[in-house]
Amino acid sequence: MAAQLSPVFIYSERYTFVLPPGYGNVHLFDGEKFQRALAVLEERGVSLQGRVIEPVEVTREQLELVHESGYLDSLTSPAVIANILEVEALAQAPFETLDELALTPMRLASGGTIQAVRAAFDSGVAVNLSGGYHHAKRSKGEGFCVYSDIAVAIEVAREERRLERVMVVDLDVHQGNGVEAIYQGDPGVEVFDMYNFQIYPMGDADARGGIRWDHPLPGGIDGPEYVERLRAHLPAAVEEFQPELIFYNAGTDIFAGDPLGDLQVDEAHVLERDRFVIEAAVSRGIPVAMVPSGGYTDDSHRLLANALEHIAGLA
Ligand SMILES: [Zn+2]
Questions:
Q1: Ligand 1 center to 295 CA (angstroms)
Q2: How far apart, in whole angstroms, are the C-alpha atoms of residue 157 and residue 216?
Q3: What fold does the segment set 8-312 form as a domain?
Q4: Does 2 have pLDDT greater than 50?
Q5: Distance from the CA of 274 to the center of ligand 1, in angstroms?
Q6: pLDDT digits over 90-125, tens only?
Q7: In what order do the strands lie in the sheet with 288-291?
Q8: Which residues are within 5 Å of ligand 1 (an ion), measured at CB?
Q9: How remote is the CA of residue 254 from the centroid of ligand 1, in Å?
């Protein structure tokens, strides 16, 4: 554990993904949110200079720590990719285009998540500005998630550090069914998940069995109630499990007005949530790696910037 906090950020200009005109928009996701978040920090006079690490693309070998090779091979098919990204028109796009514009940024982000975990052990807190693909399973991508960057990073860390207890705190509004399916029955990785149970992937009962601390929320919950529930349950879970690493999947799709989330959490309470999770780790001397995951409004980048500004200020 680092004696002193010095938060680290993993980022590349090549995280951006924007598909060419004619193939439709990639979901409702802002593929430029990473650089837009940094632009907000710049406007606010917050400098990350000297604290940003350039990611290295995840390798096939690392991906195979989690994913079946047959699934990875199937990702040369535009139809398979289009299905995962939920943009039907992409099935007509050349594979090379999809690989360059969508899959490569995701592999780079997955490499960034691996580096975020490494950096968290050295610096206490590390944030990858992309990643958090919590719906991808071992042999199947879904919900816009191709690679399970969280699981791959956990497996790399387990190899490198022989970790016995990793806790995934998944506060994206969607149930983290991919990570849960991957780690079901594995006592070394436990999931705390607070999610809207009335939206996708509603009904993934198998994956739900992989949640150790299961906090389904009905739609419409507001900021104060959301944070109150988190305060009521997260510390006890951390105390009980005593993880050696906390993985924070910090989707901002809990935000009021998010077209996919259906919760009513205001901006101040999204930040309050992020602060609380980081503090829950830092105050106990537990390294924490954060990834931004989902968020589907034009405010997503600013919500991420708010968290980054707070974390940058912890140094
Ligand atoms: Zn989500």
A1: 6
A2: 29
A3: Arginase; Chain A (3.40.800)
A4: no
A5: 15
A6: 899 999 999 998 999 999 999 999 999 999 999 999
A7: 52-53, 8-10, 125-128, 288-291, 245-249, 166-170, 189-196, 213-217
A8: 172, 174, 251, 253, 294
A9: 8
